[in-house]
Design goal:
Length: 76
């Protein structure tokens, strides 16, 4: 199951951008966001949006949208 694969990947890497997840799983960001939101609701993953740098406008939203595994002691 792909949700389990995403979970295992984040457990191993601890943090990944949406772009990295798209490349790893060969899926669109929208499809992945649905799965990642489920993990966020379960308290296993945290979503962070980085800020664009001030000197360019080339950063795509997927490169600054990060998902981070929440360690067991941090989970509610």
């Amino acid at each position: 199951m792909i949700l389990t694969d995403v979970q295992k990947y984040l457990l191993t890497t601890k943090r990944a951008s949406l772009e990295q997840l798209e490349m790893r799983f060969g899926m669109s960001g929208e499809a992945l966001r649905g799965m990642l939101e489920r993990l966020v609701r379960k308290g296993r993953v945290r979503r962070n949006i980085g800020e664009k740098c001030s000197h360019c406008c080339n950063c795509s939203p997927e490169t600054i949208e990060f998902y981070e595994w929440i360690e067991a002691e941090e989970q509610p």
